[in-house]
Amino acid sequence: MSVQYLTEQLNVSSGYLSNMLRNLTGANDQQYIHQKVIERANKYLTAGNLSVSEVAYQLGFEHP
Q: Is pTM, for the whole model, over 0.85?
């Protein structure tokens, strides 16, 4: 997931998204996205159904 993807989905500018996330979470847009990716990876890995490689691909990474 990228900032561009989110701004397109929400139909807002990257500056607006960044400001809103910083006000709501204290993190900038990239930090927030990374935090959410890590949280999702943790859920997948603790469920035990997927390998590290499968989790990486599920999250949009080209390489594990």
A: no
